[in-house]
Amino acid sequence: MLCKRIIPCLDVKDGRVVKGTNFINLVDAGSPVELAARYSNEGADELVFLDITASAEKRKTLVNLVKDVAREIRIPFTVGGGISELKDIEVLLKSGADKVSLNTSIVKNPELITQASKQFGCQAVVAAIDVKLVENTYKIFIKGGSEETELEGFSWCENVTNLGAGEILLTSMDRDGTKFGYDIEFLKELTSLVTVPVIASGGAGKKEDFLDAFQKADVDACLAASLFHFNILPIKELKEYLNNNGINVRL
Amino acid sequence: MIAIIDYVAGNVASVANAVNTINTDYKITCNEIDLLNASKIIFPGVGEASSAMKKLHKLNLYSMLRICKKPLLGICLGMQLMAEYSKEGKVMGLGLFRGSTEMFDNTVTKVPHMGWNSIDIKKESKLLDGIKSGEKFYFANSYYLPLNDCTTSVTNHQIDFSASIENGNLFGVQFHPEKSGEAGLKILKNFIEL
Predict the structure, then answer these.
(1) Is B80 helix (H, G, I), strand (E, B) or coil?
(2) Residue A219: CB partners within 8 Å, gap ≥ 6?
(3) For the whole model, what pTM was predicted?
(4) A249 domain-assigned
(5) How does DSSP classify residue B69?
(6) CA A186 to chain centre
(7) Is residue A17 part of a domain?
(8) What is the total count of domains within chain A?
(9) Is the pLDDT of residue A22 over 60?
(10) N or C: which end of chain B has fewer CB within 10 A?
(11) Cα of A219 vs its chain's centroid, Å
């Protein structure tokens, strides 16, 4: 049986991992390769690198990062953050990334999902979707959550899978950073709606939150950042807890 | 020299990185001469079957791979293309193994089959030497090869399918050994040190 996955997310700026809250008070947290190796040894099933570099050098640093990580790490990883062209995707996958996550670019150009999925296979195309409750409707936000769109949450999720996305990385902006737990209600409806794997993101604060997401919302993977970065919850301990509670994980 | 065939966009770099930790005498290539000079060939692949087959024909590698008697390891799509037919893109494969790839039914299970899953060893296998049933590997596939006489290990995702196949010098794995930690490296090592 397929294992449920635990995925640490690393924010990267100018080729270094940074820690902070809501992209503010960024602190250098070391080299992506070293942290990735640590997580890999601790039992992470996959890694996500989110590039928040704003400079013109962005493309080059991201490709170098992917090459460095791929050279050292033997688990799959996804890169995201400002990827908007097929050419960029090709370079990143050829450099050793397994998947790319696309967010703002697919809202602006949904056709990109289909093109990327045709060219590289749907397993390489992750639709990263940021939702926030606005007047009782889940709305899609882009540009790192700074811009509201007209799109409704569930219909956009269905749409990206119809267009060819192989996986959905769903971040609840209402929960992100709160440690109140994942948005179980949204995720539960989402997993009954789409047939691609769903990664839950935003709100993890304790072990029980992960168990809830797997048990109640039937998600395929849970993503977290600060909980793992600051070693509040070691991955090994989390996975043993999940295993003891009947969740099939890779120990 | 171990040749790693570079014919579609995708994970050639990861395969090369993993091979490099075992044996540095390898070459990433799509050149027929290189393949003829190689002692073993790794045939990776992610992406879509029909465009991958088109690329193989274009590079003039189709017949060469069909008749060459060297140890050949197909990974993921590479393994699927070693079969007779692929329902993905409705295309003829290399015909090195019997059978045709099928798509997982997304009305009964999640597609793609993505993540770590365990294998159940069914047959003695040179490739799986030192690997035990229950060992987990990383998969990312929407299509699968049903069980056949050459199936050496099985994985379940709503249905049992071939996780690995083997017949003489011909080997295939549906999972990604280059992304499956130590167990994956062991499998690559078994192939390289055949």
Answers:
(1) helix
(2) A4, A182, A187, A191, A198, A199, A200, A213
(3) 0.95
(4) no
(5) -
(6) 17
(7) yes
(8) 1
(9) no
(10) N
(11) 13
* A251 assigned to some structural domain: no
Instruction: Check: CB of residue B79 under 8 Å from CB of residue B118.
Output: no
How many Å apart are CA A147 and CA A142, to the nearest integer? Answer: 5
Cα–Cα nearest to A9, from A28, A34, A31, A35: A35
Domain span at residue B96 reads 2-192
User: What CATH number is attached to the domain comprising A119?
Assistant: 3.20.20.70
Rounded-to-integer distance, Cα A106 and Cα A86, Å: 12
Does residue A220 belong to the interface with chain B, where contact is any CB pair within 8 Å? yes
Expressed as residue numbers, the domain containing A84 is 5-244
In a domain, A31, yes or no: yes
The domain tally of chain B equals 1
Judged by DSSP in three states, B119 sits in coil
Going through chain A in order, the beta strands assigned E by DSSP cover 5-13, 16-21, 24-28, 47-51, 77-80, 99-102, 125-134, 137-142, 147-152, 167-172, 198-201, 221-224
Tokens representing residue B27 in the block: 């070459």
Task: Collapse the DSSP code of B164 into the 3-class scheme (helix H, G, I; strand E, B; otherwise coil) and give the result.
Answer: strand
For A60, residues 6+ apart whose C-beta sits below 8 A from its C-beta are none
ipTM of the complex: 0.94
Going by C-alpha positions, the residue among A1, A3, A6 that lies closest to residue A182 is A6
Q: How far apart are CA A133 and CA A139, in angstroms?
A: 6
Query: Which chain A residues are Cβ-neighbours of B141 within 8 angstroms?
Result: 123
* A195 touching B (Cβ < 8 Å): yes
Q: What is the CATH number of the domain that holds B164?
A: 3.40.50.880
Tens-place pLDDT, residues B96-148: 999 999 999 999 999 999 999 999 999 999 999 999 999 999 999 999 999 99
Q: How does pLDDT run across A223-235, given as a tens digit for each residue?
A: 998 899 888 999 9
Is the separation of the CB atoms in B117 and B139 below 8 Å? Answer: yes
Q: Which of B116, B178, B180, B185 is the mutation pick for testing A, counting most A CBs within 10 A?
A: B116
Which of B51, B118, B140 lies nearest to residue A123, judging by beta carbons? B140
